[in-house]
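Record pair follows.
FIRST:
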Amino acid sequence: MAGPAFGARAAAGNPVDEVARLCRYAHLYGAKVHATVNTLLEDAEFAKARKLMQELYEAGVDVFIVQDLRLLEGPLPPVELHASTQTAIRTPERARELEALGFRRLVLERQLTLEQIRAIRAAVSCELEFFIHGAICVGYSGQCYLSQQLTGRSANRGVCAQACRSRYDLVDASGKVLVRDQPLLSPRDLRLDGLLPELVGAGISSFKIEGRLKNASYVKNVVRHYRGVIDEFIASYPGYAAASAGRLEGGFTPDPDRTFTRGWTPAFVDAGPDGQPRAKMRSEDAAKAMGEPLGEIVAVRGRVVEISGAKPLANGDGLSFVGEEGAVTGARVELAEGRRVILRETTGLLPGMRVFRNLDIRFERELEKNMPRRVLDVALDWHSQEGRTVVTASSQDISVEQRFTDEAPLAEKPDLALEGLRRQLGKRTGPFAFSVRNVVADPVRFYPAAFLNQIRRDLAAALQERLENRPRSSVFLSQAVQKERSGAGALNRSMLGIPGELLRSRYCIRRELGLCPRCRVKPGMTEAVTPGADPGSEPWYLVNQKNRLRLHFDCAHCEMVVLSPDC
């Protein structure tokens, strides 16, 4: 999460006291809080950024994720540093540079193949993190200047205008329009739940979900889904363990299709022999959330629309309708009757239009009312001899105890007294599920239920206090790392100004259209396409209102480059 500034999402900041509250909650479950300080800084901002990092450290933050390497040239709190994906980590050489600066984890570029991840894994010994779900930046992370060029809002300063999600015409050198009014730079959302074992095998130990500006429903749904995927992996592959504590009980059944999605792509992780995606990456209809596909319009009669497909609809659902030219129309369901819905307005809706649901009202209610519970198991030991009793409760790596002089009366029925002791102490309190592990009672005494319940509650409170405030490990730098950091700023790959190369990407418009000269196979197809009309003379241009951007295809590196108008 971000603090109040410098978090690469200017609209997603959090007050320091809120970060502190989150840290206490996370530490209860053995989870760490990673604070993003990953915007590119102006010279005058370094003092403020360092002050903020100290405040966040005092609030309980365990890790800082940074982009601007000049931060490393001065004093920092003694916790782990992770290199943001904004530091452009896509080669073994870059990974070695950053590891030499003392980074404990590298967050890799999204546009990598498994082979490239393996090569980076072989080059460094630090941990590797990879995005497993969510939006994909079309340009290499930290090196996209498209928003800054078109709107003056810099992605490296946390105010990206998402110019890649705009609609463009594709025009050739002669002025002929090859594609009209399409989101040509907008990829679908990443989804890699089916490739988790391959990513672990390639050397990834931490998975990242993009979505700090998504709503709570998306966060609940997607995080719950991947928690289940990871737990299944751990159960199937001995030797792996979760990084935090607790187990989930009950709650809704997650389904990523039922909250925000532009459609899915495994991107380059599921690449073919040519290193390119096997399926289309572009969100063809719209760059916004289309939602789950339902079917097509069968008929329109006044305000009544009949839809094909078997998925039930509900009053209040949000629908998207896509016409032949790709135009998207949205509507809310006023009344659902089986496969028929009544809308306020049906102008422009025709049979054959594709239908998506981008708001599932019943699922939203389920997410709100039926949250899973994260439970921490606690082992309790009771030891009572010679009138002195010690009760110990242990969870994770923390133990607390209560001692008292035992003056309770001797039990007339020892077996029943021991049964009652186990029953009362083995209940739940707050997030804790107590289970009595050992009981030594010599002699056996009788205790009222209220007395035992209070012992359990006191142990729970003491355990929660210790877990929430457990000490952090301090990071101490070797002289070699300190020497490397003295010139760390020279290794910055991002810049505050606007270069002529606005973005570089492995995503390629020419290949998406089936016009790649090296591979005449459209994504998702196995046979070469038959050459059609002249694809147009190069260079090609992306045109959006008054904006005109030149495309360059660097086929030697299998990359597409978007250039400023002056280049």
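SECOND:
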Amino acid sequence: MAAVHITLPDNSVRTFDHEPTVLEVAKSIGPRLAKDTVGGLINDEKEVSDLRRILKDGTRLKIVTLAMPEALEVIRHSAAHVMAQAVQELWPDVKVTIGPVIENGFYYDFSSPRPFTPDDLLAIEKRMEQIIARDLEVVKEDWSQDQAIKTFDKMGENFKVEIIRDLGEKSVSVYKQGDWFDLCRGPHVQRLGVIKAVKVLSLAGAYWRGDEKNPQLQRVYATAFTDKKDLAEYLHNLEEAKKRDHRKIGKDLGLFYFHPLSPGGPFFAPKGALIYNQLQNFVREKYIQYGYKEVITPQIFDVDLFHRSGHYANYKENMYFTKVEERDFSLKPMNCPGHCLLYSTELRSYRDLPWRIADFGRLHRFERSGVMHGLTRVRTFCQDDAHIFCAMEDIQSEIRSFMVMLNDIYNSLGLTNYTIFLSTRPAQRMGSDAVWDRAENALADALKDLKLPYTVNAGDGAFYGPKLDIMFVDALKRPWQLGTLQVDFNLPEAFDLKFIGADNKDHRPVMLHRAILGSLERFIGVYLEHTAGHLPTWLTPTQVAILSVTDSQNDYCLELERKLKAEGVRVEFDQRSEKLGFKIREAQLQKIPYMLVIGDKEKAAGNVSVRLKSGATKYGLNFSDFVSKLKCEIQERSLHSPWTGEASAQDATVT
């Protein structure tokens, strides 16, 4: 056989007299690397391949080791098998189905003659730890379809038999660990001992293959890590996430509600609407600064518009349709087709470009009931949406301006931890490959010019163009996609958009789709969880609470309330005949930044004592000075208190 060459990330080449496995390549480099190897990233594939995979000549290989983030997928895949083995060792009559890796863990679906209990979950976890302690070697075998069907059928594993038949492959892979084995395509670790920490988390119901007509199964969720410290941190953040759940915070603070008569449609109460409008006003100010003009476009369009834009062919399952006077209409899922119509209403010159228009229009998209989640996944929402129509030569400068604006807004909100993904052409798309090449290269060149690091997210672009996805990482280290910028050559072509160039000839503009906060509903949900509901003072619905010690201070408190309102401060005077401690706790639960505690001493001196969210109190402050500093904090949209320097969103960081 001719020599087989395998290229590594540093462009060094390993040569073999046969087609090696990933593990063999690792062994050729060194025993320590081989011991730590859990898989490989091959050529342009995104998924980790099994360390037992055989490599062809010319393969580019990145070896995945235990120290790399990609290793978690392999660890959890193997831990799922450990869980299935544990269950069947404890209850041999239980049958296994599937056990995929999911975000932050994995699950396995079981067919059991009796329901699992919380005590059973503890028993499963204990048995998993015992199996891992055996440090069993994981062995891959290739079986013929007939052998696999006969073996699993004899075991009564009818779900596995169904899977094998549906695969229709001549052979299937089976992974063994000790006497236990399961049908699987991998990847898996070399030995189970590398799984250092496991936790069985919860139990849920499921149907075989997600169809309610099929047998009901029991789904056990769990997670695994290579380090017990990582597991402890994850479990801590899991508990913290429950406390920070924006649905709970929203209810406790009276911000928003949902009703079954409008599924996926949030009701913003006055306090929630105030936050919503403050965010819109903030973005509107930035529009003026960065050269955008705001427009208003219709909510409903003839379906012909979406046939022309490509949405009907590529997006109709996410749209709402209706019929009016024998014409088919749809609620708009996006603003872009309407903005193309608006562009086409005038003959435009190169002197008019770039033309930047922003739209807070309401959008409607159909989401299945199973995926809706509070504010972060709704059916009706509003984006800080804008489109830029520009000449080809303006793309670089417009992308640069977008990133400057995004940084400006994110820094103002304390959103400093984010990463950039370049999402390229999906399988279902409009436009030629040549057009996509130009668009993808334009984004990549702009990022390189700005010296901004990014990761390619292959195949995740919009159907009309590639995009930058801005992934914000919150206080619990969870990524959220907020901002986006998309380069689109296709919609201007579909709508025959033109501008007169300096050469007095027709030219086609490029369309940039962009958002920074994204959906305001989703952003509010993410931001509430990131800050644990402790919003910056300028965003807080009630900025000051006035708390009297007794009724004898009420007249002075009413005067303070009147003066604060006159200065534009959002203030509430708690006149209830309750003890001061009770009033303070109530104000703290409402996460009000400042509490003015007024007793006889403050009334007599004409000053105020200010209690901060942290519990610290500043006594005997001059009221005018307090108002002056507070107004400055609000007007500057500061993230810090002028009295302590502490972040007004004080619980944003988990310790």
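COMMENT: The CA atoms of residues 426 and 462 lie 7 Å apart.
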